[in-house]
Design a protein that fits this description.
single chain, 89 residues, elongated
Amino acid sequence: MRLMSTLTRLGLILLAGAMISVLGTSTVWDTDSSEEITTNDLANTMLDDWALPLLILGILMAMAMMGAAYLVRDERRENLEWEQRGEDV
């Protein structure tokens, strides 16, 4: 378990470094775009080009929320008996 945690942290650090190095280059920011981007263009790009990654991300987020809800449940015997009877044990 500790190995997976360490590998995950290293992967996130490498990903952040790659994103910073790509976005920090001057070629990305030097080009001047004469075309104005509208919200309609953004919506078309997200639904056409990024449909599958957004679907996968949504599934992963739903799985994480279900897992969190499962872990939060309290199933101690006293609590289960109290819920069934509605009184203290």
